[in-house]
Each structure stands twice: as C-alpha cells, then as structure tokens.
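User: Here's a chain of 265 residues. Predict its fold as tokens.
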Amino acid sequence: MERRINNLIELWKEGYSERIKKYQPYQAVQQIKHIASLFSPGDFFYFILNMHNLQLEYVHPSVRNFMEVDPENTTIRELLKCVVPEDMDEVKRKEMVLQDFLDKFRDTHQLPYYKILYMYRMKDRYNRYRTMLLQVNVLSVSSDGTIEHILSVHTDISYLGVAKSDYISFIGLNGQKSFYNVDCQTGKFDETLFETTASSFGSNLTKREQEIIFYFSKGLGAKEIGEALNISEYTVRTHRKNILKKTKQTNMAQLVSLCVMEGLI
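Assistant: Prediction complete.
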C-alpha cells in the first residue's frame, strides 16, 4: 500500500508541483468554508490542496466521521491510506487521465468551470467499506496556466447501492463541453473527444422522469414514489419503463450509477 501511495504522490509531484515556480497560499479559504456550510446535510468531507507542495491548507472536521485523523494536522498521505488497497492502481489511472486532461485542455483558465468526478472505495475508521464519489474543482490557476489549488470533495454514496464505476467524468459548469464516463484503462485522455459533438446524458428526460430517478436513488419503491409525487404506482412503473428505454439501461441500479457520474444526482 505504501508503494502505491508513493507512486501516486510522485505522479502529482511530477504533474503539478514541479511546474509551480512559487508557493502561494489559497486566499479564499473562509469563502470556501462559508459555501460548504450551505451544503445539504450528508456524509462527506472536503479539503483544499496546494499543488505546489501537496500540503493541505484546510480539512473539514467531518473527516473524523471517516478516519481517525486530526483535521488540523493530517497530511494527504494519511488521507490516502483510507483507500481500499485493491483500488489504488485504479485511482492512479484515473488521476493520470485527470492530469492528462488538464495538460491537453486548450484554455487552462477555464478549468475552474469544470467539475471532475470519479468513484473509489474506502475502508473507514470503523472497518466499514464505503463507496465514495470524489468531486474535484480547480480553485486557482497561475498566470502561466499552472494549477495551484484544488478543492476535493468526498461523498459517501454507499446508500445508493451502486457498483463502483471505473470511469471519470469532466462536467462543464458554465456551458463548457462535458466529457462523460471517460475510459481510464490507458491512463490517457483521448484527445479526439475534444472534437466530438457535445452531448448531454439525460437531456431527453422530462422533469418528472428526473424526479422519479432521484426518488429511486433514495431507495424508495414505486408505491412510495407515487405517494410522494401524488401519482399512481402504475404511473411510476410506466415512467420507469420509459426511462430505462430512453437511457438504454437494463435496471435502475445501473441508471442511478450513471446519473451519479453524469452529475444528475
């Protein structure tokens, strides 16, 4: 495990730290804390990472719900120890694709308008396995286009009952082109994706269908969803059938997993 962590740390040092000429602390930590205080309650933690020296500038206290660490004194190396060892090589490939995407992106100053997502598994302080959704946002980019700070949000999505995805998604937050479920097997971002026609998963789903997917993701059955939306159980089942047909999925568990990675849930 230690070797795998070292390999990931070295990847970050080579891809980010060695390119940053000067250390700059992140100037808006208090604003990030304020924004986070507005999040819906949920089991998650987040941190701000300075890519110059891979030091944590802030770790939210909720990290204690997952790991037995001091949020004011912990390190990125300690946080990585929670990742299931069998997943570390896969995490490294995803980070390689993420880094390659950032390197190949034409206008680096647009990167803060992207949300990058992938899943991994962790073993928490109580020896429970959790499926986690990682969301990365670039917080600041230097004048020469080097990424300086990132926000890393880790949310427990085990309750969704979804299988861990082996893909990574890059979602534009301000009208930018999104790249969904990018294959990570090669460790490279396929440049031809930049030239493909932008498409948005779920764009053909109605508002009602998106509501039903949301309730299914919460573990509700057709009868309970019908009661929540004031429609019949039969209508819910009809919507479910149409949703699966539209999205070309075979069951709701697969669909929910896809919706998580596409940022619809």
